[in-house]
Amino acid sequence: MPEVEKNDFSVGSVRKSIVKLAIPLTLAQLINVLYNVVDRIYIGHLPSGATDALAGVGLAFPIITLITGFANLFGMGGASLASIARGAHEKEKAESIMGTSFTMILITGAVLTALLEVFHEPLLFLVGASAGTIGYAEDYIVVYLAGTLFQMLSLGMNSFINSQGFAKTGMMTVLIGAVLNIALDPLFIFVFGMGVRGAAVATVISQAVSATWAVGFLFSKKAILRLTPKNIRIDFAHLKNIVALGLSAFVMNMSTGVVQIVNNVTLARYGGDVYIGVMTIVNSLREVVYTPLQGVAGGAQPVVGYNFGANRYDRVRQSVFFMTAVSLTFTMIVWAIMLVIPEQIIRIFTSDEELTGVGVNALHIYFFGLFLAALQFSGQYTFVAVGKSKEAIFFSTLRKFIIVVPLALTLPLIPSVGVTGVFLAEPISSFIASTACYVTMYFKVLRPMKRALPAKAEISDQEG
Question: How many Cβ atoms from other residues are within 10 Å of residue 277's Cβ?
């Protein structure tokens, strides 16, 4: 059987196709999160200055988020378009889309490295650095930025590996780097005595290995869509569509970065470095919790996009409903765990009593109503998968820019709320924006598809 038929998502069980992609993708992304989370765990237990060091590394989040945003702009946008083209049996077009994304990642990675290395210090002060944390923040980010291109290649091009159905290969992209990072972290941090700088060195080396693996696979004959000298160029017609669709993921990352900046600056003003340290832990947990949601949605996205391109609307609906059900179940379970053992979770990152005390309360508030994140991810990824970039961008903007940022700035001004308002902004935005996103997706995408289904397809929809 030719390889292109083996990953034909228009036949077979929808659920099995999603699970086959989602399990290795989720494992891969969970492992990928360990790149930064393990750094923070080690740093949070340094023999001296651990609280300031943890806060300093947390200040690097917005800059790292910016890099991730550009990787997703070209990676997720291009991969979604390539899936639609492949579903329509336009392989040459799909490869041209991938080549355009690859070229843009190379160019953008080089430009970002140069600019961020030059302006990193004023950027760190802009995002809330203090005299006690700036040294740690600089030690980490200066080294980390040297691996900007590696990070963008491994993240951006891995989207094309996963979108072709090679989820296990995509998992290996991050597994190799993450295992290497976990092994190198204690060596550089403690054995070589490099502290925060050592954590960054370990991360850069690991990202370089991951990027080499991902790009090497896409150049090989094992890939369905391949990178070749012929398609490594910018097709501006494709670039316009890639950016239009990838802008949703980019805005989501940028909005997250803006929220991180606003949170850090507000926390520094009303709470001090301890609260920035707490937010570093909360953000780390958010990454871990949201990763399975991204994995399930990422596993469903190629199936949704392929079947949308093939006009199999019954299978699109099945995919979205299955993704939603799995995501809701997961978030309800995690929410319950956080309510029962919050202190034990916080102590993974720190042994500081003050940090732990503040962290438990912050954890309860920040993750209240966690299950609503399932609706946000399911709605957002469905919009992207079917090419509705305007809707995807709007809901990315609504949740963070329009709701979280104003609340994080204004709630602390209320005397009875104070610094707690920064953590309270997140659940309020989830209740409003996540519900609106999913309801809109249903009425603009799923309901019209149901009307377009023939009677036989509707029966299949009900049975699937």
Answer: 31
Q: Which has the closest alpha carbon to 109: 146, 149, 144, 147?
A: 149
Q: Is the Cβ–Cβ distance between 32 and 174 less than 8 Å?
A: yes
Reported as type and span, the H/E element at residue 64 is helix 61-87
Helical axes 195-219 vs 50-58, angle rounded to 10°: 40
Classify 167 as helix, strand or coil: helix
Q: DSSP alpha helices (H): ranges in 127-166?
A: 134-144, 148-163
CA distance 397 to 405: 11
* pLDDT for residue 1: 36
pLDDT of residue 171: 83
Q: How far is CA 460 from CA 244, 313, 326, 445, in A?
A: 33, 11, 20, 18
Low-confidence ranges of the chain (pLDDT < 50): 1-5, 455-464
Whole-number Cα distances in Å, 248 to 189, 206, 379, 442: 37, 28, 12, 18
Contact 319, 300 (CB under 8 A): yes
pLDDT of residue 182: 87
The pLDDT tens digits of the residues spanning 373-414 come to: 999 999 999 998 898 878 888 887 888 889 999 999 999 999
The residue count for the chain = 464
Judged on CB neighbours under 10 Å (0-12, 13-18, 19+), 416 is exposed
What is the model's pLDDT at position 6?
52
Interior angle at CA 321, CA 316 and CA 327, nearest 5: 125
**Looking at residue 48, what is its pLDDT?**
81
Q: Give the C-alpha separation, 92 to 87, whole Å.
A: 12
